[in-house]
Glycoside hydrolase family 1 protein (Vagococcus coleopterorum), 464 residues
Amino acid sequence: MITFPDNFWWGAATSGPQSEGRFNKKHANVFDYHFEIEPTAFHNQVGPDTASNFYNSYQSDIKLMRQAGMNSLRTSIQWSRLIDDLETNTVNQEAVDFYNKVIDSQLAEGMTPVMNLHHFDLPVELYDKYGGWESKKVVELFAGFAKQCFQLFGDRVKHWATHNEPMVVVEGQYLFQFHYPNIVDGKKAVQVAYNLNLASALAIKEFKALNIPDGKIGTILNLTPTYAASEKAEDQEAARIAELWNNKLFLEPAIFGHFPHELEELLVKDNVMWKTTEAEAQVIKENTVDFLGVNYYHPNRVKAPDLAPDSVGAWMPDRYYDAYDMPGRRVNLDRGWEIYPEALYDIAINIRDNYKNIPWYVSENGMGVSNEERFKNQEGMIEDDYRIDFVKEHLTWLHKGIAEGSDCFGYHMWTPIDCWSWLNSYKNRYGFISNDIHTQIKTIKKSGHWFKTISDQNGWEEEA
Ligand code: GAL
């Protein structure tokens, strides 16, 4: 038997903005707004209005998730739903009722609810008024929103996350133009990265002040490990800087309470260092996470840049490294992402050896596949054997890391039920449960039935 630790989380992750639909929501988040003004930027012009209709069907959805073996679920509370007055942080009662019902339904099914507070879904008004995450005012407002969540739901939700993949906000909004408002500005990106770290620490401070019995708080990072193209010094140096920027910029403050000094030196040298204060540094120092969530999809391979780092022009972090397309790599062609399950082992060992062996879990992993209808059998079930293979391979490497002492307590798939993706909408499907977006009929895929057996046995029998 390949057996996982006792009480292992077998589950999946989604987010409010990608599953609920916009029903009854007072404020628009940045994606709701982007779709309003530029629907053509979204695959087939499908926006987040209905998403997977979780707002209306949470109860039956959660039952289906349980049938697919999930003993835990992460979703997120939408700031743009929960808060009525964004300036004074008053709550919207219908939203409170909704999230209460979502939490209670999970508990009734025996599932552990995990709640995240920010999944790329800043209320757009806070962008318009203050410049969003560029502003420390927004950081403060976020901490107020977080406090409301802890007070309202902390009696039942014992596992919280401050952000999902904060680096994606930095890259999408401020560097590589895939999140509204699609700005390209390296210096702002640096400040936003700092502010997101500060926002996480301030939310943790609020959490600790409430002394919630058995409450734990963490953050969710897309720890995409960096692999250098070769042993050559230039490639190694490119990988060192890519790792500093992509991973350590969030990992080190979350776990050690300070930023990586080598990165600070580089940003000072390049004249793009963030604005900070002694008091903020103290907040970051004192408010580190209890656990870490790691989203892992694909490795990040880099090589020395083609251009010299002191080339003239606006500062961007990727002047220090270029993406490296490794010949012979294995790829999920629908999504264009390399498949490299061994990285989960490398992540496990990295956390064990370099990050205090902090408790962590795989908070997202998975594969997006288009046109899964082609795999439907006569009973209408999608036979997604490729997903089963994908998950099993990743779990095998994760298991090896755990066997060697890494403190991993769970595995969450992206996602329970096919849901809406940023810009790609419903192009690629990730779920253990399919969703016909025209009828909202949801059906467990072959992988979901398989996951139930894995979850029931807390592992699987090894083949002879
Ligand atoms: C992650 C993100 C999720 C989901 C997933 C698959 O980066 O956290 O929200 O979209 O990618 O595309």
About this structure: The chain has a mean pLDDT of 97. Residues 82 and 197 are 22 Å apart (CA to CA). The chain has one domain: 2-460. The pocket of beta-D-galactopyranose is lined by residues 15, 18, 164-165, 168, 222, 295, 364, 368, 414, 421-422, 430 (CB under 6 Å).
